[in-house]
Design goal:
single chain; 122 residues; mainly beta; 5-stranded antiparallel β-sheet; 9 strands; 0% helix; globular
Length: 122
Amino acid sequence: MDDLRFIVGNSYKSVHPSEAKLDRSGRYPKDHDWTLYVDVVSGCPDDIKNVTFDLGHSFKPQKYMSSCPVPVKSDGGGPQTWRFCTRQQSYGSVAAEVTVQAADGSTKNITHRVALGTGGAG
């Protein structure tokens, strides 16, 4: 994983109150729409076996695994990157545990607090 560089971030969009679905308890509108991602910025995306996003016990299922990256154009027309991601809606912020498992079996663990605000964090 030494030759591989990636960034962990999130994009964000507010959900209008009239369109926000309620959480499982039926009390809280999920008014935050966000995508948590791992973007491969250099190296080969095939060097990553999978990325696991552990969003905590309030999510069902709690863990999401991405093993097939999708191509993403970078802002401003820069080079294409490869993205492992999960898209969610919530009523509050989340501190996610992100585990990148390389094809060679090594792992890298990162904690990322999902930024709920214009654009997100990346």
